[in-house]
Write a structure and sequence with these properties.
Layout (H helix, E strand, L loop, with lengths): L8 E5 L2 E5 L5 E3 L6 E3 L6 E5 L4 E5 L5 E5 L5 E7 L4 E6 L4 E6 L6 E4 L6 E7 L4 E6 L2 E6 L5 E5 L6 E7 L4 E6 L5 E6 L5 E5 L6 E7 L4 E6 L4 E6 L6 E5 L7 E7 L2 E6 L4 E6 L7 E5 L7 E4 L10 H5 L4 E4 L5 E4 L4 E3 L6 E3 L5 E4 L5 E4 L29 E2 L6 E2 L25
Antiparallel strand pairs: 1-2, 3-4, 5-6, 5-28, 6-7, 8-9, 9-10, 10-11, 12-13, 13-14, 14-15, 16-17, 17-18, 18-19, 20-21, 21-22, 22-23, 24-25, 25-26, 26-27, 29-30, 31-32, 33-34, 35-36
Length: 423
C-alpha cells in the first residue's frame, strides 16, 4: 500500500491492510482511512507575530489577540493541562508564561536567553526544553530547577519539538552540514537521523499517532516527512511558489499548517498529499512559530513521574519510565530521588550554565557574582556603596577590610558569620 493511505496507523494483513486511529482521542471516518477527534473542542492555531502572539481558527475565519506588549517573540509553545502559553521574548531576553485567558503573567527565566532558538513543553513530566547555541537545556515549567542536558551537540539549531509519550526530542540544525537529530529526553542518547538532502531545516513538527516527523526546508522550498525509524521518507510539497520560505510548522489531524515569510501569512495543506494549499491569513509583520492547540495534541501520559517523587527534575525515558535529575550545582543522593547541594551551609549556589558556590557574605552586596544574578535578587533596600558590606540588620556599612577580620563590627555579627566559606 502507499504510505500515505492512512491518516494515522496502518495495520498490515495478508495481501491487504486496514487503517486505525488512536482510540482515546480519535475515531475512524466512513472513508475507513481518515481520523477525526472525538473531542468537540475546536482546533486553534497559536502563532508568534513579533510584537504579539495571536490565535486563529483552523479555517482562518476567527482571529484573536493572545498576547501583546512584548518586544519580539519568535518561539512559542503551550501547556494544555494548565491552559498556558509559553514564549521567548528575544527582544527583552526573557522566557515567560501566561494563562491563555490573559491572566497570571510569570517570568520564568531572565538570564542566558540570548541564543535560544526553540522551546518545547513536556506536558507529561512538566518540564520546558530549550535549545541555546550548542546545548539542549531542560528546566521545570516554573524555571525553578534547570539543567544542561546535552552540551556541544549542535552548531546552528533552529527548531525543537518533544514527544514525551515516546521520550524523544527532535531538533534541527542548519549549519553547513545540516541535520535533524533525535535525542532521548533523559539525556541518554543523541543521534542524527537525517543528514542528506537537507540544507535549511527551518521548521519541525511531529505527528505522534502517524509516527512521522515533518520538516520544512527554506532553501529547498519543500516540506518532507519520514517515519520515526528513518524509513519511508517522502516529499509532501516541493514548490517554490507554495512554500518559498517556511519558518514555523505544525500538524493536526490530516492537515499541515505553516507560517511563511514570503507570503507573510499562515497556510494549510493536506499532510498526506500536499494538496488543497490554502492561505488562511496574511500578517502585517513576519510570522514566526506556530502551534496547533487541541487536547488530542497533548495526550495524557503515564504516572511514572508521580511515582518517582523526584525532589527537583523528573525526566521521562524512552521506555516510558522516569528518571530523577538534579539542577546544576546539585548531586543526586543514593536514593536516586533527592538532591544535595554541592555548596556548604555557609555558601550560596549560583545557577546558570556555570554553577558555583560563593560565600553568603557576597549576597546583596551590589556586585553580581552569579551568572543568573541570583545573589542580587530578593534583596532588602541597599543604602551602602557598591563594594561595601551592609550588615544584615542594615545597621552599618563596612569597608571590605573590616569583614572577617576577627572584630565584631555589626550588631548582628553578620560581618563574621560566614567567614569559613571564603576561599
Amino acid at each position: 500500500m502507499g504510505i500515505h493511505e492512512c491518516s494515522q496507523m496502518c495495520i498490515n494483513t495478508k495481501g491487504s491492510y486496514w487503517c486505525a486511529c488512536e482510540q482515546r482521542y480519535f475515531q475512524l471516518l466512513e472513508d475507513k482511512r481518515s481520523c477525526t477527534p472525538t473531542s468537540k473542542e475546536p482546533l486553534w492555531l497559536l502563532f508568534a507575530h513579533g510584537q504579539s502572539v495571536w490565535n486563529i481558527s483552523s479555517n482562518g475565519k476567527n482571529l484573536h489577540l493572545q498576547r501583546s506588549g512584548v518586544q519580539k517573540v519568535a518561539m512559542i509553545d503551550f501547556d494544555y493541562k494548565e491552559k498556558r502559553l509559553y514564549y521567548v521574548d528575544i527582544g527583552s531576553n526573557v522566557i515567560e508564561r501566561i494563562n491563555l485567558d490573559g491572566t497570571s503573567l510569570q517570568r520564568i527565566q531572565d538570564f542566558e536567553v540570548d541564543g535560544v532558538e526553540g522551546i518545547a513543553v513536556d506536558w507529561v513530566a512538566r518540564n520546558l526544553y530549550s535549545v541555546r547555541r550548542t546545548d539542549v537545556i531542560v528546566q521545570t515549567l516554573d524555571g525553578r530547577y534547570r539543567k544542561t542536558l546535552y552540551r556541544d551537540v549542535l552548531r546552528l539549531p533552529r527548531a525543537l519539538i518533544v514527544q514525551p509519550l515516546i521520550g524523544k526530542i527532535y531538533a534541527t540544525d542548519w549549519s553547513s552540514s545540516a541535520f535533524i537529530a533525535e535525542l532521548n529526553m533523559d539525556g541518554s542518547s543523541f543521534k542524527k537521523v537525517i543528514t542528506e538532502g537537507i540544507v535549511w531545516p527551518n521548521a519541525l513538527t511531529v505527528d505522534l499517532f502517524a509516527e512521522r516527523i515533518f520538516w520544512a526546508d527554506a532553501f529547498l522550498d519543500s516540506i518532507q516527512s519520514v517515519r520515526f525509524d528513518g524509513t519511508a521518507r517522502r516529499t509532501v510539497i516541493s514548490d517554490s511558489h507554495s512554500v518559498p520560505h517556511v519558518f514555523g510548522l505544525t500538524v493536526a489531524g490530516d492537515d499541515l499548517y505553516w507560517t511563511d515569510w514570503s507570503y507573510r501569512g499562515i497556510l494549510r495543506a493536506n499532510k498526506l498529499t500536499g494538496d488543497n494549499i490554502t492561505v488562511l491569513a496574511q500578517t502585517a509583520l513576519l510570522p514566526y512559530s506556530i502551534k496547533a492547540y487541541h487536547p488530542s495534541l497533548q495526550p495524557e501520559g503515564g504516572e511514572a513521574c508521580e511515582k518517582a517523587n523526584c525532589s527537583q527534575l523528573c525526566l521521562v525515558t524512552p521506555e516510558g519510565g522516569a528518571q530523577c535529575e538534579c539542577s546544576q550545582g546539585f548531586h543526586l543522593e543514593e536514593d536516586a530521588r533527592s538532591c544535595r547541594s554541592s555548596c556548604s551551609q555557609s555558601q550560596f549556589i549560583c545557577g546558570g550554565s556555570s554553577p558555583r558556590c560563593i560565600s553568603r557574605l557576597f549576597l546583596c552586596d551590589g556586585i553580581r557574582q552569579c551568572d543568573d544574578q541570583a545573589d542580587e535578587m530578593n534583596c532588602p533596600p541597599r543604602f551602602c556603596l557598591v563594594g561595601q558590606f551592609q550588615c544584615h540588620d542594615s545597621s552599618k556599612c563596612l569597608d571590605a577590610s573590616s569583614v572577617c577580620d576577627g572584630a565584631l563590627d555589626c550588631n548582628d555579627l553578620s560581618d563574621e558569620k560566614y567567614c569559613s566559606s571564603l576561599p
